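Take a careful look at the sequence and tokenised backbone pasted below. I need to know what the token row says about the fold.
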Amino acid sequence: MKKILPIWLLLPLSCVFAAPSALDQFPDLATFPDRTAELQQILDRKAGIPGGIYRITSPLLIQLAERKETAITPEHGGVTLIMDGPGPAIRMLGSHGGTADPKSFQPKTWLERMPIVAGIEIIGNHPEADGIELKGCFEPVISKVAVRWCRHGIHLVERNRNVVISDCHLYENAGIGLFLDDVNLHQINVANSHISYNRGGGIVVRDGNVRNLQITGCAIEANMPGTTQPTQTANILLDVSGSELDKSKSIAEIAITGCTIQHSANYGATGDATMAEGGANIRLRGKDLAPIDSVTISGNVMSDTTNLIDLDRSMDVTISGNTFFAPKPANLIVTNSQRILVNGNTFNPREFERPGTISFEKCQDCLVTNCILNDFTTKEGSIILRECDGFQIRGNTLTGCQSGIVVEKSKNSNIHDNLFQRFDENEKRISVIESVGINVRP
């Protein structure tokens, strides 16, 4: 069955999301000379770029095989590139076609090692302008780079290895902040960066073969439409659902730790409106042939999206030690998944009245343990299992919630040692409906 993509994926991003352009900051931009050829010559000489503001109209091409060691940095002062044409402001092409295993390297590849882009700003002035594109690169480092008002901020394509992205600002781009676009990529660290207001998603991995993605210490927020229009994007989106018959396209071994991940649903909306309805902080979309696999989500603060975490066709996911608040409506939705561990988290709507639901449907062998659920307003069940098998729900504290634990059409599960505080005496703590093998103990 052919997958139907969301409408925003079918249209050019410029038709769906309206971002500012460099003209807003530089109204006399038309008088700026085209400096593309000049800058290309500077880079071909392996020289630093003199401080200044440069308008370019086509990509600055870095062929690593021709230049060996590479660093694109300012010679002095600050450097701003205004991309006034289609494509990336900087396109870096390497020749690595192997893996991260040293035995897979050709000798020439070692001469291309660790190309660096650092200390520059890129501003877009074209609907198809991107910031930086990497292809075939080994050990690239992008650091202290700002990209705004482009389509995509940093775009990784085809094959790369051992990528480091740190201390960057990817802000208010019409498309995606960091886009792993059908790329074969193992080992990538994303750290200490602000990735915000990118209307097509913050960090998006779509298809490809991706392993060892580590996202840590980042502020990731409002990476979805800035309107009430529905969306299926997310601040962090891992998605192989569009290649459901291709097992080679898969995502696994992911760590998301120590980040603040938030917006938009409640804040910025008026009345009962929901901003970016359907958006999530973290959304995993696997497939039956290759579920999203081996993911740790730990030590984050997450808030203010429609569903704070949304998992489908995923397995071996640990969600531990996180703080959740301001869902609209749900904290956690898990479907068609296995071995999901939810442990030691706090869930609190905070200044809002919200349903706050934690729900599992058609899932197996999962644990919900040692969590605190506070002031969930849902009457349907604060923790819900539907058509599930092999669950343990234990050691949780539900305080001030308007409903308890609901188990429906499920089997072979244990529910015990949960504490219900400030609970309506007329509400049932644990409801078991059309289920078998459910062991309930206060």
Summary: Confidence is low (pLDDT under 50) at residues 1-17. Residues 17 and 174 are 6 Å apart (CA to CA). The two ends are 46 Å apart (CA to CA).
